[in-house]
Amino acid sequence: MVIRALDRKLLRDLSRMRVQAIAIALVIGSAVALFVATLATYRSLRVSEHHYYTQYRFAHVWSDLSRAPESVTRNISAIAGVVAVEGRVKEQAVLDVPGLDEPASAIVVSIPPASGHALNDLYLRRGRHVEPGHHGEVLASEAFAETNHLALGDTIKAVVAGQRVELHVVGVALSPEYVMPVPPSGLTPDDRRFAVLWMERSELEAMAGLRGAINEVSVALAPGAEEDAALAAIDQVLEPYGGRGAYGRSSQPSHTMLEEHIQQLKSLALVVPTIFLLVAAFLVNIVLSRVVATQREQIGLLKAFGYTSARVAIHYLEMTVLIVVAGIILGLPVGAWLGRVLAVFYAGFFRFPVLVFSIEPAVVAGASAVALAAAAIGALDSVRRVVALPPTVAMTAEIPAFRGSFLDVMGASRWLATSSRMILRNVSRRPLRSALAVAGMSLAVGVVVLGSSAADSIDRMRDVRFQAASREDLTVALAQVRSVGTVSDFRALPGVLRAEPFRVTPARLLTRGRSHDVTLVGLPEGGVLRNAVDTNYQVATIPKEGAIITSWLAKHFGLHPGDWLSLEIREKQRRLVTTPLVAVVDEPLGAAAYMDLGALGRLLGEPATYSGASLTVDPTQMHELNAELKRIPSALAVDYRRGALESYRRMSDSAVNFVRKIEVIFAVIIAFGVVYNSAKIAFAERARELATLRVLGFTRGEVSRILLGEVGALAAPAVPLGFVAGYWLSGLVAAAMTSDRMHVPHIVGGSTYAFAFLVFILSAAASALVVRRGLDRLDLVSVLKARE
Amino acid sequence: MGSANLTERGRPVLGVVGATKTYQMGEVEVAALRGIDLTLGAGELVVLLGASGSGKSTLLNILGGLDVPTTGRLVYRDRDLTVANERALTMYRRDHVGFVFQFYNLVPSLTARENVALVTDLAENPLSPEEALALVGLSERLDHYPAQLSGGEQQRVAIARAIAKRPDVLLCDEPTGALDINTGKVVLEAIARVNRELGTTTAVITHNAAIAAMADRVLQLADGKLVSDRRNDLRASPQDLQW
């Protein structure tokens, strides 16, 4: 192969500007790596989820009901679009787990005899299946078994449907229904205190007093079947049996939470690398325009020799392409490796029985194409200038023409030192280029703010939900609603300092043909333990009549205070009630409607009742209280605020923060790349001038100050602007991560700004050191000899 | 420090003893200077003649503290600068040497006055920028930027910048190399005037032999050696030079 002279020039130019080229390649590589890693993880989780759901026959529709004969399933089978139905018995339980001081909560689910599951099949991780006739045998959900170090054969004391029983763990299982095992009353999985147990059907029937009957159905629909129609038909069938309202996967707690994680990953996969690539495009722009400016004469010469404008333009485009390709080559394997690490991490987090991981060619091609396109956009302006440059003009040296800056016009520069005037005029001579450099450095600050701000949002959500909105130590959910007067029973329990009643009712908000499942919460007047709190820690006042709803719901349904809410109550008697919307609260987690406890009772036709109590407890008597709670037959579930807080923290620390940490690392690389290039370009443009000053007797320190002063003059406005940019960008990401269950507040903490500032200053200092070294090695004689 | 007074005239200011300079160009060693002994006297105007590659620029750079000889010594008054470190050489340039280059090397972002102020800000007893520019006939152009000045004017600003700190030595490297003859004469006149009025020891290197007529002393370099050293009995006025 013949290497043409122009290609040699290309390679030599690149080798001369290699540090800058490497910096750009690293930025592009970071973006590509992040893009590939997150997108491949997203794709593989999607495929694995699909695989899991299909293989283990995850149902499409569920409905709880009071009690129905098994035969009702045949009526459901007859509904159009239904391909499989399974009737089950499901009970809540309170467990006394060996080694766990507090009572744990559980859902006990029936396993059909012999033939196995028609739907929602189990994946047996360890042990064996339960055997008919063997009393008290259960399979336990893996997360719970592992967290509590349960061994096969261990015994758990439990209160199931008001009866004390002993359960023996014979196996450990996974189910597509409980990928994220969320307690019925909770918001996040609590692996230590919440279990899913599977028990032989006839035994659970007997315990629950449901012989020959079921209290839940799950249904599989044919592909393409209309879910809404099926839901309505199922509701109709179950109406006489106390059907609580059928719901689809979009309301299934585990599925919605899993989806949320996967969707978040997708938003991260798209938003953040896009921002990184923008920065890369930007770097290409400033570096290439500098190269073109310094090579004016060469460009003119090449054209004078007869190279076409297009050929010369391609020469400079090739330079960009080579850098981008280097970035892609760096980024792809890192991305593939990181993707694998991420996918394995997530699969472990979700406890998928199988992980399907592959880097799809489309992901690689997409990442490469986007990187190339971004760089091409960055190169566009320079290439246009190459084409436009006539040979004769190019051959004459460009004389930098200076005018006074606005400070000169105002006469203010009189008070500035000569060197400060140089800095000022250099910066103001090419306002566009200076503005671009400032914008580039602002982006550098911005991406660091962006990278670390998510932790702020997550912390805020946690603080609001688990500190400001919940001040109790624990809540006890009751099996049946009780008269509000009985709340004093709780005050009689050991160590209880304060007990406040509440009412929680599952409901469905219906508006303009759309519906959304919400939790209707009744809070007592004058209560302090539970509140509706917005993302700015403002406690919402609960009205005497009417309801307040979360801002996401209001926005989603276009509801405003003064509108009427239609709520379908999903208790044993399904019924429609209406109540005025009084106010909106910007709550971060969950979709809830809050009402006064008394008002809710009247609305439900059960005045002065409550379904659970919030308690504060003297810590020294916690042990006694726990022992008591494990034995109370009326308790359906016990939730500890500390436990929920811990599990939320564990989850946010592990999942999203993992991606975040990677982003912060890449953001730091980008910040350095931008700052280094800005300093380097300023140095290259001033080399001759600085050498002159050195010859005139300026010391290295004095010359450095002029150069670094110029970089500093560009960097100083970049910091506040970067804060603004970062705040804005993090808003984009917060919005992308917001879902119906989670309104990610747009929070950027002071420490995030401080961190971004620190990263920026360190990048600037490191760049300054590198440039300073260049200054020390400046060849005074040859710089002076050369004509500009 | 400052201008040599007339009683000092002719006393040694700056010189090299046995100076050689060898450059390593890849595998080849190139000798730019092959043993030069030279002393510049106070107030002298010396023209160094030589063809391209004769070593005259190398000699000037060594005299100005921009470069160091491979062997031999650089002596400024009673100080041996051969052993001086980088910082000491910077201070030597800052306090005692004025440079004028072929391509002016003005700072484009500063006006004529400010370009001079750049140096006077560093000096202890400088001329004011206005005085220095008046000396080279640029009183009317104080607030013009380099891009607004002709080549000759730019070179005169460079001269004003070089002499404003009252250096002991003014070193000029092909000061008229980029200029036409008439402009070149104006620039040379400025150099002669500075030498005359401030008594600054001045060395002008050029390949243009015609310029030699304005000097007190003419040195000829060839192939890294000093091949002739003669004195002009009468200094010609730059206006009378022809080339």
Q: Would you identify the regions of chain B where 5 or more consecutive residues have pLDDT less than 50?
A: 1-7
The overall pLDDT of chain A, averaged over residues, is 86
Overall shape of chain B: globular
Helical content class of chain A: 40-55%
Q: What is the residue-mean pLDDT of chain B, rounded to a whole number?
A: 88
- Percent of residues in beta strands of chain B: 25-35%
| Global shape of chain A | elongated
Main sheet summary of chain A: 6 strands, mixed, barrel
- Report the uncertain regions of chain A: none
Annotation keywords:
heterodimer, A: 788 residues, alpha+beta, 6-stranded mixed beta barrel, 6-stranded mixed barrel, 20 strands, B: 243 residues, alpha/beta, globular, disordered N terminus
What does this entry look like structurally?
- The complex is a heterodimer of chains A (788) and B (243).
- Chain A is an alpha+beta fold and 788 residues long.
- Helices cover 53% and strands 20% of the residues of chain A.
- Chain A contains 22 helices and 20 strands.
- In chain A, the strands form 3 sheets. A 6-stranded mixed β-barrel of chain A has the order 3-4-9-6-8-7. Chain A has a 6-stranded mixed β-barrel with strand order 13-14-18-15-17-16. A 4-stranded antiparallel beta sheet of chain A has the order 2-10-1-11.
- In chain A, strand 16 and strand 17 (574-585) form a beta hairpin.
- In chain A, helix 2 packs antiparallel against helix 7, helix 13 (418-429) crosses helix 20 (700-737) and helix 14 packs antiparallel against helix 19.
- The longest helix of chain A has 55 residues, at 641-695.
- Chain A is elongated and about 100 Å long.
- By secondary structure, chain B is an alpha/beta fold.
- Chain B has 6 helices and 10 strands.
- In chain B, the strands form 2 sheets. Chain B has a 6-stranded mixed beta sheet with strand order 6-7-8-3-9-10, with helices on both faces.
- In chain B, a hairpin with a 2-residue loop joins strand 9 (217-222) and strand 10.
- Chain B is globular.
- The chains are: A alpha+beta (788), B alpha/beta (243).
- Chain A binds chain B through residues 399-403, 417-419, 421-422, 425-426, 429, 688-689, 692-700, 780-781, 784-785, 787-788, and chain B through 57, 61, 64, 66-67, 86-87, 90-91, 93-95, 97, 99, 101, 103, 105, 107-110, 114, 117-119, 121-122, 145-148, 161, 173.
